[in-house]
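Sample pair:
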Amino acid sequence: MERPAAPIGDAAAPIRSSRARAVASELIAGLSVALVLVPQSLAYAELAGVPAHLGLYASALAPIVAAPFAASRYLQTGPTAMTSLLTLGALSALATAGSVAYVQLAALLALLVGIIRVVLGLLRGGAVANFLSQPVILGFTVAAATLIFASQLPAALGAPRAGDGVLGAAWTALVNPRAWDGRSVAIAAGTLTVVLGAQRVHRLFPGVLAAAVGSLTYSMTVGFDGPTVGQVPAPTLPTLELPLASAPYLLLPAALIALVGFAEPAAIGRTFASMDRRRWDADGAMISQGVANLASGLSGGFPVGASFSRSALARMAGAKTRLTGVVTGVAVLLFLPAARILAPLPKATLAAIVIASIVGLLSRARDLPDVARASGPQALVASGTFALTLALAPHVEYAVLLGLACRSRSTCGGELTVGVEHAFEAGKLTLRLQGVLWFASAPFVGAQLNGALAAHPEAKELVLQLGGLGRVDYTGALALKSLLEEARAAGLSVRLLDVPPQSVQLVERVCGDAAAP
């Protein structure tokens, strides 16, 4: 009797299994980001001066519409501390924070930011954000982080907000311990401990979510009667009443938010692209961040950007495609009908979440002495921008303009580009630089390295030959350090050759161990 033939296996099964794993990976990554984004969005909305629940609106549609245009599969869009502070600075003189007029202005500001970014991207001007020099960015970032910390201090202490300006209110709260609310202080301290200690538990442990859930549970259990998020209205279709007559007053702040707020997404995207040896498209990223702001404005939100912490989380959680951003936005969107459960969440928790998010920015203060040792003029630019940002708060956008004006006066006559030739042979990628490496030309070198790595993913060694450079300024030296670190992160060994004699000391001071073979 003839035996029946063995069943032929399903040849498509491995393909379906592979696709299922890929989809599962995107779902896990997207949900992981959403779990962090929900409490963060509430906190950043408070910082921006709008009702907390509008942070959810800004977090729902923005990542969904940004995803198809995104230049990076990891970049996660939504409210950020820096854009929220810039929003507060732009609007505080025009309307009372939290008022209907203020909310309308915030939506209009987001639309203007979106339009500017989309236009810049379409005109292939994504690299324009690179013209913000490193000393200016450093001074501004440290000062902005100081202001963000100060703005959250009264809420973290449970003290009434009193005093002139952000710094004045923080000082008044700090020197009057009798006005502190012990429960708010304990909640803020516990939140900081959980959020900052989360990485020690596991790199994917959602510390922000754990702290928010813990605080919410405590508030509901004991009947916490301190400041809370308050009533969260049911989600409805936005009825946009934009104060278009105020648009001229918002154009300058919108332009600065569009540029300053793009610096972080650009740095995140290029770094991850170099590590994965993929091309980085600054223009595409500018467009994606632009449409994200258009979506946020049309949904009644406020200006948004891209977060390094959430983007890094997406990468660590297994994001492989831009679908992760869609999953994140959909998850927040589905949460909106249930958002009313957040009403008892203490504001001290939101303040601590914001403070935890800018610890890394505050730590950049230790770079200021390094600038002073490397270059006196650049130290003056950085410290001047720092002082101006604090002095002009909340109108911090003017500090950036003044800092750039001072920086430009010290670099007049420098070339806007630097010549880069690259060659590849036997696993060795060689970049030869010619011209002047200063703050306006340094990003061009980074783009060239990114393109060369994408073109030669098999490269094992990077050699930077600097003999053709006539001068290297402080930002140029920082760019060299960044290039060396990115190359090492991409798995390459690196060498730095023929540093111009007049720049050896500066390069050694800035690059340090990064330049060691």
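The CA atoms of residues 283 and 467 lie 31 Å apart.
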